[in-house]
Amino acid sequence: MRYQSTRGKVNGLSFREAVLMGLADDGGLLLPETLPRLSSGDLESLYRLDYPELAFQIISHFVDDIPSADLSRLLNRSYAGFTHPDVTPLVHRDGVYILELFHGPTLAFKDVALQFLGNLFEYLLEKSGQTMNIIGATSGDTGSAAIHGVRGKKNINIFILHPQGKVSPVQELQMTTVTDDNVFNLAVDGTFDDAQAIVKEIFGDVAFKNRLNLGAINSINWARVLAQVVYYFYAFGRLRRETGCEKAYFSVPTGNFGDIFAGYIARSMGLPIHKLILATNENNILSRFVEQGDYSLGSVVSTLSPSMDIQVASNFERYLFFLLQRDPEAVNKAMADFKKDGRLHFSPEQIARVQEDFLAQSVDREQTLATIRDFHADTGYVLDPHTAVGVHAGRCRSGGEYPVVCLATAHPAKFKEAVVQAIGREPQRPESLQGLEERQKRCRTISADAAAVREFIEQNAC
Ligand SMILES: Cc1ncc(COP(=O)(O)O)c(C=O)c1O
Ligand SMILES: N[C@@H](CCOP(=O)(O)O)C(=O)O
């Protein structure tokens, strides 16, 4: 499999090269040149596999430059530390199927891909004898999952930018209490969008990127999206075995458009997803896009689901590439227009095509709290606020003819403030969070300025 950039100037990369490049050197995002299309016979045999074996089968379609035995070993190691034997179990409550993606070390869906990416980086660096400096932006979950994926690893330093005071207290502690020498937390005076823009600007300086061998752990890295594709297959397989259904809806709480884009890839490979339901909080540029073709920038507002407090969704560019018929010139123009005007225009035909893939719903604070409260009252199950956004949207937008799978993207204990508001008590605290407040912390505050961040990285690079 070869990889190409959405902006057309980087082509013919191998999987290894794509993973190590992260953001394409022309500023675009990397995608496979073709997508495999699986037959119904192929799909039925995948549905019988356990999680690591399924991950191996799916990921192998996209990787031809890592020996199979090594890839299989990396995947087995990545999922061995999950606390549930199914890795991402599917549970049925009150008419919806909840795909629990929070059984990894940091209790969010990011662990599914970042345990693998951490191991993959280590493997590739061992082979090449290089060192790597990872840089990433987080609205709370990617940061801790990436840090836990690479903490203490030889030859890797990691620099994580989070918006100061805008992540949940538990998320902040999960990052800042990791004091290994190779981990650097930077609290940026700005929003997640500011932090992500800084990361992209630094990657855009290709000479600097190559000199420090910068690595990307955000979903700009294709390996992140790829590892997330797997659980759509896993969930549908379990659902089909349980209900015999022909198709399903998937409702996905969305911020940076990475998780739902992984669903789009799974659907494009032939997985029978009827529609992907894109669920946003009040930062609803993406749901406005799907529903009305209105892709116009607003300012970021703080919500009960802080990890989705995002306006400029990185992976939107990948979807745009497909929507614009894989035309890199059209993507370049659209990205330049968006940078200049803060909005994009789409024709009615284009929006009709979008709506063949997606439905969308924006969910506000009251609806989020009511969903947590009512779901708990009816089932005893505690949703985290991001998952609640997805459950509400899934219920509103699905048609009833197929089951609905809602992606449970985080454990409620990461967002206990919202849970207490909804049900009047704290969720149970998993063992990995015990004693978090008492641990030693390390974090520097930094202005939202790429030059300052670059200087810090330069001084602390490995
Ligand atoms: C808990 C949680 N849910 C949902 C999302 C949204 O996922 P994505 O950014 O891939 O759209 C995030 C952040 O990425 C998150 O941390
Ligand atoms: N919600 C994310 C934002 C970054 O998204 P990513 O999937 O591109 O890493 C977070 O928790 O940091």
TrEMBL record:
Record GO biological process: threonine biosynthetic process
Enzyme class: lyase
Pfam family, one: PALP
Stretches assigned to the Threonine synthase N-terminal domain: 2-79
Top-level taxon: Bacteria
Catalytic activity: O-phospho-L-homoserine + H2O = L-threonine + phosphate
Sequence ranges assigned to domain Tryptophan synthase beta chain-like PALP in this UniProt record: 88-317
Protein name as it appears in the record: Threonine synthase
Organism encoding this protein: Geoalkalibacter subterraneus
